[in-house]
Each structure stands twice: as structure tokens, then as C-alpha cells.
Design brief:
Order of helices and strands: EHEEHHHEHHHHH
Radius of gyration: 18 Å
CATH class of the largest domain: Alpha Beta
CATH architecture of the largest domain: 2-Layer Sandwich
Structural class: alpha+beta
Largest sheet: 4 strands, antiparallel
CATH topology of the largest domain: Alpha-Beta Plaits
Helix content: 55-70%
Number of domains: 2
Number of helices: 9
Distance between the termini: 16 Å
Strand order of the largest sheet: 2-3-1-4
């Protein structure tokens, strides 16, 4: 399934085998640096969470025009040329492949640096990253909760607010219109997360639906 323009996705991936994506604090910062370099031009990041061996993202793929405008390199010039051609089927497919390729480039870039730093070889990520299109408002709300509560679910922290490598603290301010439409106000945002945290049986059902 190709990623589509102007579409919301839950994107996630896991370390290959028993390895970790992040061995120390500086790995998280470097991952985000590479992520913004390669993914910001093609997608808006709404929510995210990084954990030692996997990550979750909620992104909205940008429009064709936004993506073309965001790129100024020779590689983007080729993409721009494709977008300016008549929209026949083969060219449309190439445009959509470009979106997934950006994620592949990002994973490869991080892996190469990680391997060099720790003198390791081979793939770091599972080959095909997972993506699920967001179907409706309720599903979107659940995805935000799912992403922010993941560190609690996996035992990395006791509260969503305690995990550093997540959008939990910034989400309501940085995506205020969306946050208000999903949770009404900041108190509702916090209470909903706390409520889900207390009801882990319900959370496990949510995880079964979303993964």
C-alpha cells in the first residue's frame, strides 16, 4: 500500500531482532535530527514516541505542492518534474513511491551512523515499516492515546508525562486546534490519558485493534 498525499497515518517500526534502536540518550537526539531532515519535507508530525527498541508516529503526509516547495535539492527537482507531467497512472505511482522512499532513506541514514558508532553491521530496522491510515476522528483520538501511553504499557515509565522522548507534553500546545477537537481542553487531555492508563485491560484491547 502506497502512502497517499494529504492523509493521516500511524507509522511504526521496530529494531531488527533483539537489538535496540537507542542505546544511549544521544541516539534519541540524533534520530530526531535525521527524522526532521528527511521526513519534515514530506509530512507534518502530529504525535510521536521513541522507545529503546521501537517507535510510533502520527503523521499527515503533505500535499504535492507542499512537498515540491519543500525540496530544493537535485533529487527533489526530479520529483518536481514528475509532478509537472500529466497525471497518468505510472507517474502517479512513482510519486507515491517517492513518499515511502523518503522513510527508507531516513532509516538507512540513521542505521549507517548507528553502525559506525557501535561497530556493528547489518540492518537495524525491520525492513518494511508499518503504516495504518487513520479512518475517523475516534480512531485518531485513540492513536494519540496509544502513542503517548506506549512507554507506560511497556514499563519504561509509570506515567506518560515522565517519558522524555514523546510529544505528550507538547501536543496540546503545538496541535491546539486538533487537541481541542479531540479532548476539549488541557484538563480533558490529561484526564483522558490518566483514565486510559488506569484501565489497562481496555488499553490492551485498544492495542489489539491498532497493531
Amino acid at each position: 500500500m502506497f502512502l497517499q498525499f494529504n492523509t493521516l497515518y500511524h507509522i511504526y517500526n521496530h529494531a531488527n531482532g533483539d537489538d535496540n534502536l537507542f542505546r544511549e540518550e544521544k541516539n534519541y537526539s540524533f534520530f530526531l535530527e535525521k527524522y526532521h531532515q528527511h521526513i519534515d519535507p514530506i509530512a507534518e508530525t502530529i504525535a510521536w514516541c521513541l522507545m529503546p527498541n521501537h517507535f510510533h508516529l502520527l503523521v499527515k503526509i503533505r500535499s504535492e505542492k507542499e512537498i515540491v516547495d519543500n525540496f530544493s535539492s537535485s533529487a527533489s527537482a526530479n520529483f518536481s518534474k514528475v509532478l509537472n507531467f500529466r497525471k497518468v497512472e505510472v507517474l502517479e505511482e512513482e510519486k507515491l513511491k517517492f513518499l515511502s522512499k523518503q522513510f527508507s532513506i531516513f532509516f538507512s541514514s540513521y542505521t549507517q551512523a548507528f553502525n559506525k558508532m557501535y561497530n556493528r553491521r547489518g540492518s537495524l530496522f525491520i525492513k518494511n515499516f508499518k503504516r495504518k491510515q487513520i479512518a475517523n476522528q475516534d480512531y485518531l483520538r485513540n492513536i494519540v492515546l496509544y502513542i503517548h501511553l506506549n512507554p507506560v504499557k511497556h514499563g519504561f515509565t509509570k506515567a506518560a508525562s515522565d517519558w522524555r522522548w514523546t510529544s505528550y507534553q507538547a501536543f496540546f500546545d503545538e496541535s491546539s486546534d486538533l487537541a481541542k477537537s479531540l479532548f476539549d481542553d488541557k484538563a480533558g487531555y490529561k484526564d483522558t490519558h490518566l483514565g486510559k492508563q488506569r484501565l489497562f485491560k481496555e488499553y490492551e484491547l485498544l492495542e489489539r485493534d491498532l497493531t
